[in-house]
């Protein structure tokens, strides 16, 4: 029911272009939009190769980049007409590793939910407003030093839409020796993979960033223009952005969801853990104490962010050379949690993987008659054996004069930080390679 209401709202507000996009979207909603290979003439049933020899994906869909310190990232990309850019089989190989270490089975956006503060308009930009069909052509200037790859989009055609490039990130580390006679330092570099999708007047940059130290960052940047239809906020729910006290742009939220299917060391059957630390005031002559508790998340969870609370996904079968289980920590960026809908209310969800559960809200995949269509309702006590992590990062956008024109990019996102994936800093210079564990005490 909500779906049709929102489509009506989309068409009313976003003009005929949106109607067409929405119609095209409906038409393709049930046809699974699999990888669209540029080599479409390839026979469908290629001779089966042994699993070990089979490449992860065709060369046109492969991304491989070696960065500073000898770290190599590998992945496959594809394009989904609803979710946009999808990255599969993401692996990380620091110089010290003999083989690539699988991190993610699949990662993508799972919704951009945009409710306006006056309650009159509410959009699901991915599955209700044509995000995927709004893929933009990129000029070389907006992919500096990189490669722009053509993307075949079903019912749209080929768009020069995928940028892969590298970018300096500054210090990877710095350390002076005890005698202050030597400084070890390194300058890091990131692999960037991004697309731009236009939804009505907004343009969203979907950016993935892979660092030489094993960190992944996912961010969405919103730019373009404020909606010219939403200047009716004389009810105190907006901000005047033209001369004087006219032209009140209506405040709204961008609740961005990502869907992460981990696959640490090649297995999707990862464990999830929640950590909480509580601080107590000092007693007597002692200092304040902190107690940290680790709670295994064995059942589906709707998690709420809290100070000193964090989650990690742990490999069931992979250990680093120190004998510690490999894991990735989910590190959220700043977020304004929107209390308005069940699915926006929580900051992270862990659900047992189900193929039909693809979008955090307004899920247009077929989960059966009467099945709920949002992530909050999929959390119903199932044991968590093959977890999907849904990350929700909200931004409450109260417009400002600077938003015209064009609107400066505002970013929201999170990082995935390696924890014990390698036994040491993957960028450790050879001279320090023996400094693992408690150092010798000064005499
Ligand atoms: Cu906005």
Automatic annotation (TrEMBL):
Residues 422-443 are annotated as: Disordered. GO terms for biological process: amine metabolic process. Keywords: Copper, Metal-binding, Oxidoreductase, Signal, TPQ. It is an enzyme of class 1 (oxidoreductase). Its cofactor is Cu cation. GO terms for molecular function: copper ion binding; primary methylamine oxidase activity; quinone binding. Pfam families: Cu_amine_oxid. The keyword Oxidoreductase applies. Belongs to the copper/topaquinone oxidase family. The modification 2',4',5'-topaquinone is found at residue 202. InterPro entries: Cu_amine_oxidase (IPR000269), Cu_amine_oxidase_C (IPR015798), Cu_amine_oxidase_C_sf (IPR036460). Residues 72-426 form the Copper amine oxidase catalytic domain. Contains 1 topaquinone per subunit. Its EC number is 1.4.3.-. This is Amine oxidase. Topaquinone (TPQ) is generated by copper-dependent autoxidation of a specific tyrosyl residue. Residues 1-33 form the signal peptide.
